[in-house]
């Protein structure tokens, strides 16, 4: 398997990004996760990323394991107790669109998170996840 070493992350990243604002409610976030079948949503102010909300973060606060299957009232109460700002990851590592896929793989392999925002200047231009990476690697075989 010969990977083309200089392929930029822009070739595999998601460009039409679903985002949240810090003022959005957590049940809005849950709806976006479900409707779009995604696991990470950047939190933005304008074009600038200020945090990343993951489905795991959301599930962690809706502590009942079964809560995700049925829209129970308990979940709504829990969601109203927290804000997106409280739940999102704030110290984000970001990459630029010309970062190579190999570099992205190394970053994701050595960290506990599974998504990286792609930022050019201060503008959020994409998001790349471990899933994007795996799909790319499978296509190389």
Automatic annotation (TrEMBL):
<keyword id="KW-0129">CBS domain</keyword>
<dbReference type="Pfam" id="PF00571">
    <property type="entry name" value="CBS"/>
</dbReference>
<protein>
    <submittedName>
        <fullName>CBS domain-containing protein</fullName>
    </submittedName>
</protein>
<dbReference type="InterPro" id="IPR051257">
    <property type="entry name" value="Diverse_CBS-Domain"/>
</dbReference>
<dbReference type="InterPro" id="IPR046342">
    <property type="entry name" value="CBS_dom_sf"/>
</dbReference>
<dbReference type="InterPro" id="IPR000644">
    <property type="entry name" value="CBS_dom"/>
</dbReference>
């Amino acid at each position: 398997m010969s990977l083309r070493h200089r392929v930029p992350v822009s070739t595999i990243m998601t460009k039409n990004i679903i985002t949240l604002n810090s003022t959005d409610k957590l049940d809005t976030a849950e709806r976006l996760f479900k409707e779009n079948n995604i696991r990470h949503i950047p939190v933005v102010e304008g074009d600038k990323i200020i945090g990343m909300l993951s489905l795991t973060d959301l599930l962690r606060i809706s502590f009942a394991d079964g809560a995700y299957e049925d829209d129970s009232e308990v979940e709504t109460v829990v969601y109203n107790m927290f804000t997106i700002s409280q739940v999102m990851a704030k110290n984000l590592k970001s990459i630029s669109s010309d970062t190579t896929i190999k570099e992205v793989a190394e970053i994701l392999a050595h960290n506990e998170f599974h998504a990286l925002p792609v930022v050019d200047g201060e503008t959020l231009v994409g998001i790349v996840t471990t899933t994007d990476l795996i799909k790319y690697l499978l296509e190389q075989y």
